[in-house]
Amino acid sequence: MEMDLQEVQTFAIAIAEQAGEIVCKKRLEAKLSHEFKYGNELVTNADLAADKFISEEISKRYGSHLILSEELSPDIGNLQEIQESVWIVDPIDGTVNFAHGHNQSAISIAYVEQQQVKIGVVYNPFTKEMFSALKGGGAFLNDSPIRIANEPALDRAIIATGFPYEKSNLEPMIQRLRVVLHHCADIRRLGSAALDICWVAAGRLDGYYESLCIWDFAAARLIAKEAGAECGHFSDVPEGIDPQFHPDDLLIANPVLYPELKRILGSAAEKETPLKSLG
Ligand code: IPD
Ligand code: CA
Ligand code: CA
Questions:
Q1: CA-CA distance, 156 to 256, in Å (whole number)?
Q2: Fewer CB within 10 Å: C terminus or N terminus of the chain?
């Protein structure tokens, strides 16, 4: 069933704000538990509490919708084959920042209807910045429209990226970092992919690249797109995969810088040193 998207967006914004209050309160209480999933991936009780809150609110309001959320339901199958509406939730993006007292963390909520991301909401509860977009309706920071920066020169551009928790295959990332750093003004590793992408949307960064999970970027990608960014990949998207859901080798930048960044990131991959020859 098609929904009133304005109404759905208002709901998404409200639950992101309430989840933000939970997250801030947990940190103030200073009773954060630090667990590691898959060996090295930090997860706190605040991640779990925010996920539980958001998932319960969605189920109460939209009982027939599916929820794909990082902590409670990370695997619901192939999004391209799901007919129902789906909510994609990262309860805290930037958990390491959050747990170390940095303020670059966000709640990310995307709404997918008929296999299209229709709404994206990324909320930083520490700065009270609410990034949002409704497909075709532009991107906003709180109540003000946002646009990407128009920097045309890569050597004046600030490019953000990030690194996975799993460190067994860092060399290709280091090659890419080296080549991008050579060509741009500077690099940022801010620690929240959703906010990195929203910061491109708001013109605070000129470009961003990384491989992620769907909950890290689903909402922010729509926000960046609506703000005028080119959203794609620096490697080929496998045949039959919808690019909006493909998490590998994401590249988001202004349309002028995008082709050059894509070219240099691609060339770095070609120069990759096989791990076995590194000794
Ligand atoms: C992480 C952040 C980080 C990115 C990692 C993500 P989490 O998400 O977005 O910036 O580099 O790849 O896993 O674990 O804080 O939700
Ligand atoms: Ca995340
Ligand atoms: Ca997370």
A1: 13
A2: C
Looking up tokens 């000794």, which residue turns up? Answer: 279
Distance from C-alpha of 161 to C-alpha of 24, rounded to nearest angstrom: 25
| Contact yes or no for 84/99 (Cβ under 8 A) | no
What is the distance between the alpha carbons of residues 90 and 69, in angstroms, rounded to a whole number? Answer: 6
pLDDT digits (tens, 9 = 90+) for 215-252: 999 999 999 999 999 999 999 999 999 999 999 999 99
The rounded distance, in Å, linking the Cα atoms of 53 and 4 is 23
d(CA 192, ligand 3 centre) in Å: 9
- The reply to whether the predicted model has a pTM over 0.90 is yes
Q: How far apart are CA 212 and CA 163, in angstroms?
A: 9
Where does residue 31 rank: exposed (0-12), middle (13-18), buried (19+ CB within 10 A)? exposed
Q: What are the strands, taking DSSP E only, across 45-191? A: 66-69, 86-93, 106-113, 116-124, 129-134, 139-141, 144-145, 158-161, 186-188
More confident residue, 270 or 70: 70
56/68 Cα distance (integer angstroms) = 12
Q: Is the pLDDT of residue 273 over 70?
A: no
Pocket probe for ligand 1: among 48, 88, 93, the residue whose CB has the most ligand atoms within 8 Å is 93
Residue keyed to tokens 């096989």:
274
Give the atom of ligand 1 at the shortest distance from the alpha carbon of 97.
Answer: 15
Other C-beta atoms closer than 10 Å to the C-beta of 72 total 16
